[in-house]
Design goal:
There is one protein chain. The strands form two sheets. Strands 11-12-10-9-8-7-13 form a seven-stranded mixed β-sheet, sandwiched between helices. It has helices at residues 8-15, 18-28, 44-61, 76-84, 151-161, 168-181, 191-200, 206-213, 219-231, 250-259, 291-298, 323-341; strands at residues 34-37, 66-69, 90-91, 102-106, 125-128, 141-144, 233-235, 238-245, 267-274, 277-284, 304-307, 311-316, 349-350. With 356 residues, the chain is an alpha/beta fold.
Length: 356
């Protein structure tokens, strides 16, 4: 049986047939209630992977799994995705983990600091596309494929391997996850992502996809954009912005993507304070940057982090909201970011005062 498969090429040799997934389903069948955990503040990829795994296990075992998340679903398109596709989710704080015999984790890994599942609790299944943080010999089934652009693609392959029909709502969910995670196959995609994307496109609901790409937003959405732009500072090829106190943690990553479009900017770092924690997002246009490693080194000894080559994030617990403390942290992380990237330090210039 293929277990703890952490090399993408090894996994791909087996996932084309049903035997690979049969082994997973056979192990789960009959054990009892199933819990599926996403990372905190789940994005479309985490949501799609979770509901696809739930569907796979329902069809294979007859057991309806509970999908749980920590934090909030804050980004407008993510909330719309949950509502429009009628995704059934439960806040993880409402659960008693002793009620579940099988615990699965998707689009995140234990010990990364970005999920609310206790590190001392048993974990049985792990499916993710981020680089592995350690050996997972203690987990029965670990399928970690860092060469894939989306966790949703892995679950799509599982469903295909079992010849399970993918109805419109699930197809829309999986397609939008791959679309958003890879930015329409423009960022960190693989052949597997492209194949899934092209297969799911004609099955998806175009009207819902349009709504997800153009969701309504509240007034404070624009004020947050204003704050990011107003606080943004350029250090040569690096742009840094601080949102300070935020109510929606997803906006840091969204604004990091948005400000990466600035001419001559190659690297972006965004900060925001959310209920005592400092959340950090980094982005780049350089496909060789390895930002997941960069941010881990940047906040080593301070917090936890992880990600991919061109996008990554982290969190530092117990940070003061005080403006002086925020400015000091921003200065410290900016210096570390530039040093680790191997760039020359340049005087900071306000984005709004910079000249072309």
């Amino acid at each position: 049986m293929v277990e703890n498969a952490q090399d993408a090429s090894e996994v791909q040799q087996h996932c084309c047939g049903s035997v690979f997934v049969d082994q997973l389903i056979d192990w789960v069948r009959g054990k009892g209630r199933i819990l599926i955990v996403t990372h905190d503040n789940p994005d479309p990829d985490a949501l799609a992977a979770a509901v696809a795994l739930r569907h796979l296990l329902l069809m294979g075992t007859g057991e309806t799994a509970v999908v749980a998340f920590g934090g909030v679903i804050g980004r407008s398109e993510n909330r719309l995705m949950v509502d429009a596709l009628e995704l059934e989710l439960v806040p993880i704080t409402e659960l008693d983990f002793d009620d579940f015999a099988v615990v699965c984790m998707v689009d995140t890994q234990p010990g990364t600091g970005n999920n609310s599942y206790p590190a001392d609790r048993p974990l049985h299944l792990l499916i993710d596309h981020h680089p592995p943080r350690r050996e997972y010999s203690d987990i029965h089934w670990a399928d970690v494929r860092p060469g894939y652009g989306a966790s949703a693609t892995i679950l799509f392959e599982y469903l295909r391997a079992q010849d399970i029909s993918i109805a419109t709502r699930l197809a829309t969910c999986l397609f939008y996850a791959i679309k958003s995670e890879t930015q329409d196959l423009g960022r960190e995609w693989s052949k597997a992502d492209r194949d899934a994307y092209l297969h799911l496109l004609p099955l998806a609901n175009n009207a819902i996809l349009y709504r997800l790409s153009n969701p309504p937003v509240p007034n404070d959405y624009y004020s947050t954009f204003h704050r990011a732009i107003d606080n943004a500072t350029l250090y040569g090829k690096v742009l840094v912005f601080n949102l300070y106190r935020i109510e929606n943690p997803d906006l840091i990553a969204e604004l990091a993507d948005f400000l990466l479009r600035q001419e001559q900017v190659v690297f972006v770092m965004g900060l925001g304070w959310y209920f005592g924690d400092e959340l950090i997002s980094v982005r780049t246009t350089d496909p060789d940057a390895r930002l997941g490693s960069v941010i881990q080194e940047m906040i080593a000894g301070m917090g936890t982090a992880g990600g991919h080559g061109m996008m990554a994030g982290g969190q530092i617990r117990g940070i003061s909201e005080d403006s002086a403390a925020q400015k000091e942290l921003e200065s410290l992380l900016t210096g570390r970011y530039i040093n680790i990237l191997g760039l020359q330090h340049e005087p900071g210039v306000s984005l709004l005062e910079s000249k072309d």
